[in-house]
Structure formats: C-alpha cells, structure tokens
Amino acid sequence: MSGSILILFAEDEPLIQSAAEDALVDGGYQVLAASNGQEAIRLLDERIEEIGGLITDVRMGAGPTGWEVARHARSLNPELPVVYTTGDSAADWAAEGVPKSVVVQKPYADAQVLAAISSLMIISS
C-alpha cells in the first residue's frame, strides 16, 4: 500500500530523524526531511503535489511550530495525513492539531510513527 508515497518528515533532532526515517524507508515510504518548520513550509510550497503525508515534531526551535506547519500543509491539501510527534505538547493536540490527525508521544518506538502514518493513509484512501 505505501509503495512510493513521499512523506515530509520535520524533526530538529538529527538522531530521532535518522532512526524514524530508516523505519519509514523500511516500511516502503520515501522520505523528504526538514530540520525546522521554515524548511518544512518551503518544501510543502515547492512539492505539495508529490507529498503524500506529513510527520512533524511540534517544537522545532525558532520559527514555525509543527502545529503551524500542519495548518499550512492542510491549507494546500485539506486531505493530507498528519502525524505530530512531541515530548511535551500532546495535551495541546485537541486545541492546536488539525482534524483527522494523530499525535505520537516521545519517546516513541519508530514503529509507532510508521503505524500512525500508515493508518492515516488507509483512512484517507
């Protein structure tokens, strides 16, 4: 099912990004990495037609938050599957998250992120 779907993965922690990216690739996805919210928004603007899902950390230092990245993504593609990852902002998901999204609490097993995006892909198809 996942085939060659391109996932935009926004995460400012290189070790977390690398491990989760490996799990996504092993799960059959292609990954486009962004190290902050500004880069994620730029990639969304440039490649929204190719991007089939978004995984974003909520807090990525200075610049746009994951909440803002996801809202921007949904303004471009209202059906885009969105997974948030966070160590401390899960309680804000109901108020800040976009509809039909999932939040995965850090620390997480890489398989959790893979399962979350895969389940949203099934729901949106």
From TrEMBL:
It holds the Pfam family Response_reg. InterPro entries: Bact_response_regulator, CheY-like_superfamily, Sig_transdc_resp-reg_receiver. The modification 4-aspartylphosphate is found at D57. GO terms for biological process: phosphorelay signal transduction system. Residues 6-121 form the Response regulatory domain. SUPFAM superfamilies: CheY-like. Gene3D superfamilies: 3.40.50.2300. Keywords: Phosphoprotein. PANTHER family: STRESS RESPONSE REGULATOR PROTEIN 1 (PTHR44591), TWO-COMPONENT RESPONSE REGULATOR (PTHR44591:SF21). This is Response regulator.
